[in-house]
Design a protein that fits this description.
Number of strands of chain B: 5
Number of helices of chain B: 5
CATH topology of the largest domain in chain A: Heat Shock Protein 90
Helix content of chain A: 40-55%
CATH architecture of chain B: 3-Layer(aba) Sandwich
Strand content of chain B: 15-25%
Strand order of the largest sheet of chain B: 2-1-3-4-5
CATH class of the largest domain in chain A: Alpha Beta
Strand content of chain A: 15-25%
CATH class of chain B: Alpha Beta
Order of helices and strands of chain B: EHEHEHEHEH
Radius of gyration of chain A: 36 Å
Oligomer: heterodimer
CATH superfamily of the largest domain in chain A: Histidine kinase-like ATPase, C-terminal domain
Shape of chain A: extended
CATH topology of chain B: Rossmann fold
Distance between the termini of chain B: 11 Å
Shape of chain B: globular
Strand order of the largest sheet of chain A: 14-18-19-17-16-15
Number of helices of chain A: 23
Number of strands of chain A: 22
Largest sheet of chain A: 6 strands, mixed
CATH architecture of the largest domain in chain A: 2-Layer Sandwich
CATH superfamily of chain B: Response regulator
Largest interface: A-B, 48 and 47 residues
Structural class of chain A: alpha+beta
Radius of gyration of chain B: 13 Å
Distance between the termini of chain A: 66 Å
C-alpha cells in the first residue's frame, strides 16, 4: 500500500514550529542555580518529537541534527551532564538553526548547509567536551542508515553460520516462561510467522502442565519443539522471536549440523557499535569550516528573507474547538428563528405582527452573535507575538551586558490574525529601542538609585474596540531638551517654535531622527521609528509616547481588533456615500465657499488655527456631478490625519457613524487610488472606503 | 475489522498512523497522551494499542502498565513506538507489559506489517 506522506507535512511543520517555541521558552526559563527537571523534560520532548517526525517524513537532515540535540538533552535529563549556560546558548542557537532548516524545507528551498554544519559542530563540541558521559555519542548514521532495520532493530551481534549440509532449516526449542501471555504475545502468532518462512512442524510438550485444579489458564505451561524447513537465515528466525526474548528460554540450531551455537540473546556492548562508525562526523565538519566564514554574511541575509517570506505565506489557522462549537450553536439558533419566521409568514394576519417583530428582533440578535463568533475565529491570542520576545531580550541584553527582565502581561488578549502577523516587526523595533536606549547600564542604574536589573513590561489589553499594546520600561526616559536641540540641529523644527511635551516626543517619529549618541547594531540608524509609525497607521492604529526623564518610557500602540470591520463615518458627496475611517478623523467643520483660500499653483487651502491645510474636493477627485451643485457652496470640511500630515476633505454633509464590513476592491475589481476598499450599505448600495494616507499623499503632490 | 487505539502526542505522527491504519480498514481512535488514552480505553475495548513512549502527562510505558492492570487489556497486544532504540527502554516497556515495539522512523508499510504480526 502506498500512502502519500506529503499530506501530513503541513501538520508536521506546524507542530515542529510549536515544539521549537516550547523548547526556546523552556531554555530561556532555565535557572542555572536550580534546574527544573520538568523543563528539561519538555525541551527534550520537543527535540524528540521533531526527530521522530522528521525521520518518518523523510527529512533526514533534520532528523540527524535533532539526534545530536536529543542525545545531549537526554544526558542532561538523566543528570549525566550538567546544564551550563554555554550549553544552553548552543541549544538556543540550534533551535534557530532548526527553525531555519524547517522553513527552508517547508518552502522547498535548499537548506543552508554551512549554517547547519556550524551549529552541528557547536553541538558536538558541547557533547564531547566537559564531563564526558560513559558512552560516546552514538553516530547518527548508525540509526538512520538502513530503513529495513527499523522495525526490527535487533542490536544483537549475530555471527552468520552458513550451513550447507543436508536438509536446510532450523530446529528450535521454545520454552516460554509462565508470564509470556501477559505481555499480549501469543505463541500461535509466532508459529504462524515461522510457517510463512518455511514448512513448520511443531511438537508440544505438556509434561509441565499441572493438574486441573492447579491450572491457571492465564499462564503458559506448554513448551514446544519446532522444526522449520527451508532456506532461511538465522536472523529471520531471531527477528520473529525478537519480542519474546527475555520471556522464554530458547535455543536455535541449524538442522543439519548440531553445532553448539552461541546463545541467541547476546547483550549489546556499546563499544563495537561505536567502532562501526562509517563516517566520523568530526573530520566532516572540519572540512566545512572555512566555508562558514565566507557564507556568514549571506547567511544572515538569507534568514531575513526567509522570515519575510513566511509571514507573507502563512495561510492556515488553528481554531479552538470551543469556538467552532459556539459557531455551530449560533447557526442552529438562526435556523430555528428562520423557521419560526417562516411559520409566521405562512398564514400571516395582522394579529401576528407582534410575533413577527419578536422574531425579527431575535434574528437580529442572532445575526449579531453569529457575526461576533465568526470574527472570533480569526482571533488569536497576542502571545503568538509576545512569545518571541523573551528570547530577543535574553540575546540582546547579554550582548549589551545589561541586566533586563521582560514581564509579559495580558498574553491571552485576542486580536485578529492579520494584526498578529503585521504587528511583530514594529514591536521588535520598539523593544530593541527600549533595550538599547531605554534601559541604562547596570552601573548607571545603581548610581541613579534604581535596582540594577531593568524591567521591560509588555502589556496587552482591550479597550473599546481596540487592543492596546504597551511597552513600558523603567529606563532613563526621554530627554526633552536633548530631543528638541537635536531636532533643531537637524533642521526638523524652527528654533523659536514652542512645542508641547507631546509634540517633542512625537519628534522621534520624524524621518531621519536618532537620539542615541552612539549608533549600535541593535537599534540601527534611526530609519526605524517613522517606519514603525507608518506600519501601525497602515493597520488603522496609532502610537503614542509617555515618558518621564529618569523614570522610564511607555509606548502605547492602539490597534483595531480586526481588519475586516471598520468604524466609519459616512459622508455624502452628491448622491454618493463614502466612508471615512473614524480613526483618521480629527474634527469636522461646517464651512462656506468663501472660507477657502486659493493659492496659485497649490490648489486650495483652509486656515485652521494659524495653520494652512490643503483641501481636497471630493466632488472633484471622484468626479461626482449629481446632487445639488449649489450645495457645494457650503459643505463640511473633514480634517483627517494620515502619516502625520493633516488635510481637509470637502464633502456635502456628514451622514452617520457605523461599523462597516470591508470588501476588497482589488479582489473584485482593481486597485483604485485613494480608495482602500468598499462596503455594502443597509440599502444595498455600495460605498467606497477612503484611503486617508493615500489621499494625503495625493494632496501633497 | 480490529479496533486500534493510536496514542501519540505529536499530531503529525498520530495522523500518519491513524490514516495508514484506517486506509487498511482498521477502526482507529486517536488519543493525545497517556491520560487521554486510558480514558478512551476504558470507554470501549480496543483490540490493540499502539502508543508513543515519550509523551507529556503520562508516558507510553506507564500507560501500558496501567492498561495491563485492567481486566479487558490483560492479553491485548500493545505496541510501543519509540525512537529510543536503547535496550533499557525496551526492557522497561516489556516489564510494563508491552507486546513489542516499533522504532521510529518507520513507514506505513512497516507499520502495517508489524500490526499484521499481532492482529493477523
Amino acid at each position: 500500500m502506498s500512502i502519500d506522506m506529503s499530506q501530513f507535512h503541513q501538520v508536521f511543520f506546524e507542530e515542529c514550529f510549536e515544539g521549537l517555541e516550547a523548547m526556546e521558552s523552556g531554555l530561556l526559563t532555565l535557572d542555572m542555580g536550580d534546574i527544573d527537571s520538568e523543563i528539561i523534560n519538555t525541551i527534550f520532548r520537543g527535540a524528540h518529537s521533531i526527530k521522530g517526525g522528521s525521520g518518518t517524513f523523510g527529512f533526514t537532515v533534520v532528523a540527524e541534527y535533532t539526534h545530536i540535540m536529543e542525545t545531549l538533552l537526554d544526558e542532561m535529563r538523566d543528570g549525566r551532564r550538567k546544564v551550563t549556560q554555554p550549553a544552553v546558548d548552543v541549544l538556543l542557537g540550534s533551535v534557530d538553526c532548526l527553525r531555519e532548516m524547517l522553513t527552508a524545507i517547508q518552502n522547498e528551498r535548499n537548506v543552508n548547509n554551512a549554517s547547519v554544519a556550524k551549529h552541528k559542530k557547536a553541538l558536538e563540541v558541547v557533547l564531547n567536551g566537559g564531563s564526558m558521559a560513559e558512552e560516546p555519542a552514538l553516530p547518527v548514521e548508525q540509526e538512520f542508515a538502513s530503513e529495513e532495520d527499523s522495525v526490527n532493530v535487533a542490536p544483537d551481534i549475530v555471527e552468520e553460520e552458513s550451513v550447507e549440509l543436508g536438509e536446510q532449516g532450523w530446529k528450535i526449542a521454545f520454552c516460554p516462561y509462565l508470564d509470556l501471555l501477559k505481555t499480549g504475545n501469543d505463541p500461535v502468532r509466532l508459529f504462524r510467522e515461522l510457517n510463512e518462512l518455511g514448512e513448520l512442524t511443531t511438537t508440544v510438550n505438556i509434561q509441565d502442565v499441572p493438574g486441573f485444579y492447579e491450572l491457571d489458564p492465564e499462564e503458559c505451561n506448554i513448551s514446544w519443539d519446532l522444526k522449520v524447513v527451508g532456506d532461511i537465515s538465522g536472523d529471520e528466525i531471531r527477528e520473529i522471536f525478537n519480542w519474546v526474548e527475555g520471556d522464554c528460554e530458547m535455543e536455535i540450531q541449524p538442522l543439519a549440523k548440531a553445532v553448539k551455537l552461541p546463545p541467541v540473546v547476546k547483550k549489546i556492548d556499546p563499544e563495537p557499535a561505536a567502532v562501526i562508525i562509517p563516517d566520523n562526523p568530526a573530520p566532516k565538519s572540519v572540512e566545512v569550516k572555512p566555508k562558514v566564514a565566507e557564507t556568514k554574511k549571506s547567511e544572515s541575509q538569507d534568514s531575513d528573507n526567509e522570515a519575510a517570506k513566511t509571514t507573507a505565506k502563512a495561510s492556515s489557522i488553528r481554531v479552538d474547538t470551543d469556538k467552532i462549537d459556539t459557531l455551530i450553536n449560533m447557526v442552529g439558533e438562526v435556523v430555528i428563528t428562520q423557521s419560526m419566521l417562516g411559520l409566521v409568514g405562512e398564514n400571516f394576519s395582522m394579529d401576528k405582527v407582534g410575533q413577527l417583530k419578536r422574531g425579527l428582533a431575535q434574528l437580529e440578535r442572532h445575526t449579531r452573535d453569529l457575526q461576533q463568533s465568526v470574527m472570533n475565529i480569526r482571533m488569536l491570542p497576542i502571545s503568538f507575538v509576545f512569545s518571541r520576545f523573551p528570547r530577543l531580550v535574553h540575546d540582546i541584553s547579554s550582548k549589551l551586558d545589561k541586566k533586563i527582565v521582560l514581564k509579559l502581561v495580558g498574553e491571552n488578549t485576542e486580536v485578529d490574525k492579520a494584526v498578529v502577523e503585521l504587528i511583530n516587526d514594529p514591536l521588535v523595533h520598539l523593544i530593541r529601542n527600549s533595550l538599547d536606549h531605554g534601559i541604562e547600564m547596570p552601573a548607571d542604574r545603581v548610581a541613579a538609585g534604581k535596582p540594577e536589573t531593568g524591567t521591560i513590561e509588555l502589556k496587552a489589553y482591550h479597550r473599546g474596540g481596540h487592543i492596546v499594546i504597551e511597552i513600558i520600561d523603567d529606563g532613563r526616559g526621554l530627554d526633552k531638551d536633548k530631543l528638541l536641540s537635536k531636532a533643531i540641529e537637524k533642521g526638523l523644527v524652527e528654533e523659536n517654535n514652542l512645542l508641547t511635551e507631546k509634540q517633542i516626543f512625537e519628534l522621534i517619529f520624524m524621518p531621519g531622527f536618532s537620539t542615541a549618541e552612539q549608533l549600535t547594531d541593535i537599534s540601527g540608524r534611526g530609519v526605524g521609528m517613522d517606519v514603525v509609525r507608518r506600519n501601525i497607521q497602515s493597520l488603522g492604529g496609532n502610537i503614542e509616547i509617555i515618558s518621564e526623564l529618569g523614570k522610564g518610557t511607555t509606548i502605547a500602540i492602539h490597534l483595531p481588533l480586526t481588519l475586516a470591520i471598520l468604524d466609519g463615518q459616512s459622508v455624502a458627496v452628491g448622491d454618493e456615500t463614502y466612508i471615512v475611517p473614524l480613526v483618521s478623523i480629527i474634527e469636522s467643520i461646517n464651512i462656506t465657499e468663501r472660507m477657502l483660500n486659493k493659492v496659485a499653483g497649490k490648489g486650495e487651502t483652509f486656515r485652521l488655527r494659524n495653520e494652512y491645510l490643503p483641501v481636497i474636493r471630493m466632488r472633484g477627485i471622484f468626479n461626482v456631478h449629481s446632487g445639488n451643485p449649489t450645495k457645494s457652496k457650503e459643505g463640511v470640511l473633514v480634517v483627517v490625519e494620515g502619516q502625520g500630515e493633516l488635510c481637509c476633505l470637502l464633502v456635502d454633509e456628514l451622514l452617520g457613524q457605523q461599523q462597516v464590513v470591508i470588501k476588497s476592491l482589488e479582489a473584485n475589481y482593481r486597485r483604485v487610488e485613494g480608495v482602500s476598499g468598499a462596503t455594502i450599505l443597509g440599502d444595498g448600495s455600495v460605498a467606497l472606503i477612503l484611503d486617508v494616507p493615500g489621499l494625503v499623499r495625493f494632496s501633497i503632490r | 475489522m480490529a479496533s486500534i487505539l493510536a496514542v501519540d502526542d505529536s499530531a503529525s505522527m498520530r495522523k500518519m498512523v491513524s490514516f495508514t491504519l484506517r486506509a487498511a480498514g482498521y477502526d482507529v481512535e486517536e488519543a493525545v497522551d497517556g491520560v487521554d488514552a486510558l480514558e478512551k480505553a476504558q470507554a470501549r475495548k480496543f483490540d490493540c494499542v499502539v502508543a508513543d513512549v515519550n509523551m507529556p502527562n503520562k508516558d507510553g510505558i506507564t500507560l501500558i502498565r496501567d492498561l495491563r492492570a485492567l481486566p479487558d487489556y490483560k492479553f491485548i497486544p500493545m505496541l510501543m513506538l519509540t525512537t529510543e532504540s536503547g535496550i533499557e527502554k525496551k526492557q522497561e516497556g516489556k516489564a510494563a507489559g508491552a507486546t513489542g515495539w516499533m522504532v521510529k522512523p518507520f513507514n506505513p508499510d512497516q507499520l502495517l506489517k508489524t500490526l499484521l504480526k499481532v492482529l493477523g
